[in-house]
Write a structure and sequence with these properties.
Layout lengths: L1 E8 L5 H12 L7 E8 L5 E3 L15 H4 L1 E8 L2 E6 L7 E5 L1 E4 L10 H9 L8 H8 L1 H10 L7 E5 H6 L1 H9 L5 E5 L9 E3 L2 H12 L4 E6 L4 E11 L2 E10 L8 H6 L11 E2 L6 H17 L4 E10 L5 E7 L17 H20 L16 H8 L1
Parallel strand pairs: 1-2, 1-7
Antiparallel strand pairs: 2-3, 3-4, 4-5, 5-6, 8-11, 9-10, 9-11, 12-13, 12-15, 13-14, 15-16
């Protein structure tokens, strides 16, 4: 039986959303196949473990976590990946895990930071690689990459906060060439945090100031007229990819807000609040979105499960990839349940796929038997050998 370390939390404005997604997933992981080991990262970047962390009630007061759970360090010890008691004199081993399952949202964790650490110590992990996670988090770079591959994205302008502070007038003029309304976003946040629609110059300046309070990199996009927002998820690794049904976002706002995604649905038993699944689209548009989902998944080097947001002009049927959610809320399971794939089956696919992907990657050559250092006896000697 594999021990699955479910990692969640982190120093992110989406910290609490990560907790909700992770606890939900831990309650649905197949207990006959896997043993779940919770690994919670606090807002001050300390790691904790303990069965109590599987209960939603444990997070009513985050300050109590240090009292009810054990602070640990995750590291490699021989052929094992161990959780050591950080506060014990001899760093006693508390538990071990066989595979990591990051269920994190936002900057500082989902952006490749956590994937980088897991890959550095060599542990198998669910979800995207460092590159995929990084591309998925940065809305500017991902659009540049998608555009270079001919995948449609909306017209946009991007800049750093210092550029706006030093050259505000010229940047405003450049943005206004997109024509109003525009949507202003922090480039590396999720869950619709810090996003605002601007319909004139005054609103634009206010929206930029709000976005800058969250991130140093800002994205401004032209809004799609006759807007319909739809989503499609993709699950798998390499060539074993499956798309979900398409869901239409339901909101009374200009875009799906943080409140729509989480606060309105907090008392609901249904996790798909805010979506109509399947969306009512004609077959041509449906197939186009399916194709773009798979294509974008590959181009951005993604793996695990990703939910793609699409912007559709309902009159012209033009489609634009808005952004990927590389570790989506609720892991987008409700996009698959209408296809008769239950949540525990999706989780099985993610974990088993990650293990198989890890085994395949281990077959690749990562070093050579020859050792350059064995004949290196000084700087000049090496220079002579290479010249």
């Amino acid at each position: 039986m594999y021990k699955v370390g479910v990692i969640f939390g982190g120093e992110s404005v989406e910290h609490e959303i990560s907790i909700i997604t992770a606890v939900q997933a831990m309650n649905h992981i197949d207990k006959d196949k896997y043993e779940v080991i919770p690994l919670y990262i606090s807002k001050d970047r300390c790691w904790y473990t303990g069965d109590v962390l599987r209960k939603m009630s444990s997070y009513k007061n985050l300050d109590n976590i240090k009292k009810i759970a054990k602070e640990v360090i995750l590291e490699k010890n021989g052929n094992e990946y161990v959780l050591k008691d950080k506060n014990s004199l001899f760093k006693k081993i508390v538990n071990t895990i066989d595979i990591a399952f990051p269920i994190v949202h936002g900057k500082g964790v989902e952006d490749g930071s956590l994937a980088g650490y897991l890959e550095l110590i060599g542990i198998p992990h669910v979800g995207p690689s460092i590159l995929g996670a990084s591309l998925g988090q940065d809305k500017v770079v991902q659009k540049l990459v998608l555009k270079s591959e001919g995948i449609p994205v909306t017209d946009f302008v991007w800049f750093y906060d210092y550029e706006y502070q030093n050259n505000q007038k010229d940047l405003i003029q450049k943005i206004e060439k997109l024509t109003y309304p525009v949507i202003v976003k922090p480039a590396r946040l999720g869950s619709s945090v810090g996003i605002n629609v601007a319909k004139n110059k005054e609103e634009l300046e206010e929206a930029i100031e709000d976005a800058i309070s969250y991130d140093e990199k800002i994205l401004v996009e032209k809004m799609v007229p006759n807007l319909m927002e739809v989503d499609c998820a993709v699950v798998g690794y390499k060539d074993q990819l499956v798309h979900s049904l398409i869901g239409e976002m339901l909101t009374s706002s200009d875009y799906l807000t943080f409140e729509d995604k989480y606060l309105k649905s907090s008392k609901s038993k249904s996790s798909n609040t805010g979506f109509k699944i399947p969306a009512k689209l004609d077959s041509e548009l449906t197939n186009k979105i399916y194709d773009l989902s798979i294509q974008a998944f590959k181009v951005l080097d993604l793996s695990g499960v990703t939910r793609f947001d699409f912007l559709v002009n309902s009159k012209t049927k033009e489609v634009y990839v808005n952004e990927p959610n590389t570790i989506p809320g609720s892991l987008a399971f409700f996009f698959f349940t209408p296809m008769k794939k239950e949540y525990h089956e999706l989780l099985n696919d993610l974990i088993d796929g990650a293990i198989n992907n890890y085994k395949e990657n281990k077959k690749k050559i990562t070093n050579f038997e020859s050792n350059v250092l064995s004949t290196y006896d000084g700087k000049d000697s090496l220079k002579n050998k290479l010249s």
